[in-house]
Request: fold
Amino acid sequence: MKPLLAALLLALVGVPAVAHDVVNTAFVPNRAAHPFNVRDLVMMDRVGDPQLSPDGRYAAFGVRSTDYAANKGVNAIYVLDLQGKGSQPVKVVDKGGSARWSADGRSLYFLAPAKGVAQLWRLDLGGKNGLNPGRHAAPVQVSHTPLDIDDYKLSPDGKRVLLSYEVLTDCATRACTEQRIKMRAGDKASGTLYHKLFVRHWDTWANGRRNQLFAARFDGKGQLPAEPTLLSRGIDGDVPSKPFGDDSEFAFAPDGKSVYFSVRIAGTTEPWSTNFDVYRVPVDGSAAPKNLTAGNKAWDAYPVPSPDGRTLYYLAMKTPGFESDRFAIMALDLVTGAKREVDPQWDRSPGSLSISADGKTLYATADDQGQHPLFAIDAASGKVTELVGDGTVDGYSFAAGKLLLARDDLKRPADLYLAKADGSDLRQVTRFNAADLKNARVGDFEFFNFKGWHDQTVQGYVVKPVGYQPGKTYPVAFIIHGGPQGAMTNGWSYRWNPQTYAGQGFAVVTVNFHGSTGYGQAFTDSISGDWGGKPLADLKLGWKAALDKYRFLDGNRACALGASYGGYMTYWIAGVWNRPWKCLIDHDGVFDTRAMYYGTDELWFEEKENGGTPWQHPVNYEKFNPVDHVKDWRVPMLVVHSSDDFRIPITQGLGAFTALQRRGIPSEFLTFPDETHFVLKPHNSVQWHDTVNAWLEKWTAKDAKR
Reply:
C-alpha cells in the first residue's frame, strides 16, 4: 500500500465494470485492429490486490485506470460475486484503494481522502439476503486524523487496526507533526541542515519524519480514537520501510494481544546496512518492542504468525549488506525461542509469505526459470509444490478452500483467476482489457536456452514482431534488464514492455545473464564483483545463439538498450562490444562507477557489488568502469535520465551525454524534471516511448547512415 493522492475525491457508484470508464476528452482509444503501442499500454486497466471474502464467495480487488487528460492514474475498488453465473464486477469505490474485508465478511475497509488527507473508511455491503454490492450503504469515515494513513491492517477479530503514519518522532501527537510541517512551510529560510545520511532516498529529500506503527481500537460505533497508541516507541527506523514497504511488514498475533513488525534501526549506518530485524510488542503499547532476531545481522522481515500463535514464520537473508541474497523461510518457536530454516533445499528466494488456515502450509511467490509462480511449502518438511505456474502471479488470497490470484504474462496484463486451494480448476473470472487486447495485436514469444559463460546454461526469450511473416527479416531491440539481480520473465510490464517494440515492427531479444534471479542463488551471486565479465559473456553468446536459431532476426539492423544496470551495461558495451549495434539507448545507467558510489543513496549495494568502499578497494571500482572506455565509443546513443532519480543521479546521464557530444557521436538527451528512476506519468511514458521508438527506427532503417 502507498499513500493515496491528496487530490482524489471520494465518490461511490454501483455499476458493472467496463474498460476505461474514466472519460478522457484528450484521448480516443483506437478500436480498429492495429499493432500494440504505448497508447494502448498507458490506457490499460491495471487489476490487482485480490482479496477473498472470509466465506470465499466474493472477490474485492483494485483497478487503476488512466485519466489521460489529467495525466494521472485513478484507483477504484470492485467486488465480484464468484458464485453468480455471468456476474460482472461491480465498482463500489470510485476513488480509493487497499480494500480489506471485515472479520464477518459483510464490510470492506479501504483508504481514501477526506479533505485532502488519506483516511480509513468502511463500506457496509450487507443486505437481508446476503451481500449486495450493487446496493450498498454510503461509506463511513472511521479515522479522523491530520496526517495521511500510509498503510493499515485489521486484527483477526476485527476489533483493532494497525496504522502507519509518517511522523516526527520527537512529537507526542500527530497534531504536533502537522503543526511543525506547517511552520516549516511558512519559514522564509529554505535551508536544511543535515547531520547524517540519508540526506535523500529514492526520490525524496529527508525531512526528519519516520513511518511509525500505531494501534487503535474501534469504539461501539466503529470509530477510531483521535490519538492511537504508538507501538514503535523508541524505534529509530521506518515501519514499514522506505521507499517501497507495505503492510506485509507488520502483523497481529492470532489472539490480537501482540504485534510483530520488521524494521531497520537507522542510527548513523542506515545507508550501508541491511540489518532488518523482527520485533514483538504488546498491542496496548505497555512495553517496549523486543527484538526477536538480533542474532542475525542480515535481513529479517515479513512476519507471519501461525494460526495457533506458537510459531512465527518470517523471511531471512544470511549475508549482511546484501539486498539480493536468498530469502530463506524461517520458523521461530515463540515458546522455546528455537529457530529453524523451513526450506533449506529450495534454491529460490520467496517474494511473499502467507499461511493456510490450519497452519500446515506456507505460500510464496518466487522467480523460477523465467516464470514467477505461486508455490506451496509444507511447514513441517519444507517440501515445495508449484500451485500456479506459467506467467506471473502478482497477488493472491486464500479463503474457504479457494485461491484467488492476479496473473499476467508477456501477452496480456493482469486479470483475476479462481482455483481450488491446491491450484486445480483454475479459471479466469475477470476480463478487464479484453476488448482492447482484441484490437491491439501483440507478438508471440518463445524462451530459448544456450551455453553461456563457461558453458553454463543461460535462458533468454525472443518476441516476434506483430505481423510476423515467415521468410522475412526484422530489426531487433536487444533489451538488457536491470537489477542486476532481476530477470526478464513471462510477465506484463508497464515499463520496458517488449510488446511496445514488437508493435513497431521490431523483434525483441533478451537474455537472463549471470546475476539474474530464478536460476539458483549461486547464479544470482555470480555477478557481484564481475559486472562487466560473466554477464557480458552471456550477452555475447546469447546474441549469437539467437541469431543462429531465429533466422528472422536481422543482425545488421539491431540496437541494444537497457535501464539501471541495463543502462550500465549499455555504457559498458559502448566501449567494449559495440560492433553489432546500429544504435544504443541508455536509461538511468551508471556511467562512472566510482562517482556513482559518492552520489547514490543506498551505499550497501555499491559496497557489496564492489567488495567494499572506493578508498578500500579502488581497483574494484575501476575494473569495469564505462568512463574509462569513452575513447572507444562510436555508436549513436540516446541517453535518458530524470532529475528525481536519486538511486543513479542525473549527473551520470549528463556525463555520458557530454562525452558523446564532445566525441562528435550522434546523440540525444531526454530528461524529465518530475520523474524518478522510473518514468510513470502517462504523458511522460508516451513521450519516452515515442522518443525511444524514433531513435530505433532512425538507425535501423535499411538506408540509415552515420
About this structure: The first helix runs from residue 38 to 42. Residues 1-25 have pLDDT under 50 and may be disordered.
